[in-house]
Amino acid sequence: MNAVFKAIADPTRRKVLALLRQRSMTAGELSDHFPVSRPTMSAHFAVLREADLIEANKVGTTIFYQLKLSVLEDALLGFSQLFGIGVADHMTTDPTGGARPKATREGADE
Amino acid sequence: MNAVFKAIADPTRRKVLALLRQRSMTAGELSDHFPVSRPTMSAHFAVLREADLIEANKVGTTIFYQLKLSVLEDALLGFSQLFGIGVADHMTTDPTGGARPKATREGADE
DNA sequence: CATCAATTTCGATGATTAGCTAAATAGCGA
DNA sequence: TCGCTATTTAGCTAATCATCGAAATTGATG
What we know:
- Chains A, B: GO terms for molecular function: DNA binding; DNA-binding transcription factor activity.
- The structure is a homodimer of 110-residue chains.
- Chain A has helices at 2-7, 11-22, 27-31, 38-50, 69-82, and strands at residues 25-26, 54-59, 62-67.
- Helix content of chain A is 45%, strand content 13%.
- Chain A contains five helices and three strands, in the order ααβααββα.
- Chain A is elongated and about 45 Å long.
- Chain A is of the alpha+beta class and 110 residues long.
- Chain A has a single domain (3-83), classed as Orthogonal Bundle (Arc Repressor Mutant, subunit A), CATH 1.10.10.
- Chains A and B meet through α1, α2 and α5 of A and α1, α2 and α5 of B.
- The first copy, chain A, binds a DNA duplex (30 and 30 nucleotides) through residues 10, 12, 26-28, 31, 36-47, 58, 60-63.
């Protein structure tokens, strides 16, 4: 979870995630949205990959990056719950009474 | 919002916020929970203050730090909504249809 | 096989950051 | 005023980070 927070600490990476929310895009296509060099973007992708926030799919010489929303979701959820913040899943007030496949967090930080 | 994400990128600072969730504590009391020097903790407090995540109240020579939950909440909320993640307020599925006092975000990042 | 395109890896650099010790500031009580 | 306590500021170092250009990798195509 630390890796996730480190990853989203950077504005460029947050924007990459936001772009990927809609459709998965190639590394080059993503890079075109930012005023930095390809190698720099590649490094950002590596950080996001390391945090398991995105997934790479190589097709020929092209790499498609895809958002792993559940990982982002779990991190945000876990942290938020530490604070009683309503940051909830798609089902906030859990009507099942606790049959979550996500995880029950209480000290999942660090 | 960038400042908030930078602030919570550090595990020590996240833990400080978590400690502050219950009761407000003095700088020294907070410091006692970590294996680093007072000046280092003071620097962490400064970052959290800078991000407006905590508030300082000086009483004599002692400083009480208090969590500003709403700021954390807004940042988390705003970011999460960018992804359609349910990270919602205390009222997730907004039955009012959009009468929120928090803010309506759509490009609030960066 | 030679070349082109997409992307990453390498190696370097300047900026930021977390950490420390020592010193400064500020309030309080004798 | 002197000394004690709480906290921050100052000055420094080591590590991490974002960035770049050049080179390497990998796959496709003529």
